[in-house]
Amino acid sequence: LRRIIPGYGGLDVASLVLVVVLIMLKAVLILGIQVGGFPSGIGGQLVIYSLQELASLILNYVFWAVLIRVILSWVAPDPYNPVVRVIVQVTEPIMAPVRKMLPPMGGFDLSPLIVLLGIQLLQILFRLH
Fold first, then answer.
1. Nearest 5°: CA angle at 98, between 93 and 103?
2. Can you list the alpha helix ranges (DSSP code H) found in the chain?
3. pTM above 0.85, yes or no
């Protein structure tokens, strides 16, 4: 799929397209099982559902990455460990702006707490619609 769909700005667009297609396929299969067929005129709703599921999946992934980073900060692992580096690369673009907005707390970093609360708020908003 990467041969057909190029990346954009360092983002692997082909993987995101594949995930959206798989979410759509899951929705069609579940709808086919529950209703017994595919109702007409549901294509737009299917796209919106798929994008909501993708956003929820990404938010869930980031939530767990931030939580793992918090736990890793308690044990102080080797910063050159590949797992630690991936966790930091995933979470730092989200936590750095929050860290800049917070006043100094005497050595305490409350940015993970703010990020986790923000992610939970976004997940609640995605579930409402």
1. 140
2. 13-35, 43-75, 82-101, 111-128
3. no
Instruction: With a cut of 70, list the residues of the chain below it in pLDDT.
Output: 37-41, 128-129
Contacts of 15 (CB under 8 A, 6+ apart): 1
What is the largest distance, in Å, between two alpha-carbon atoms of the chain? 60
| Residue of 110, 112, 68, 61 whose CA lies nearest to 87 | 68
Task: Report the alpha-carbon distance of residue 10 to residue 100 in Å, rounded.
Answer: 25
State the pLDDT at residue 97: 92
Domain segments of the chain as ranges: 1-39, 54-128
> Quick one: tokens of 26?
């899951």
User: What is the CA angle 80-83-88, rounded to 5?
Assistant: 75
**Amino acid (1-letter code) at residue 29:** L
Cβ-contact 78, 84 below 8 angstroms: yes
CB 79 within 8 A of CB 85: yes
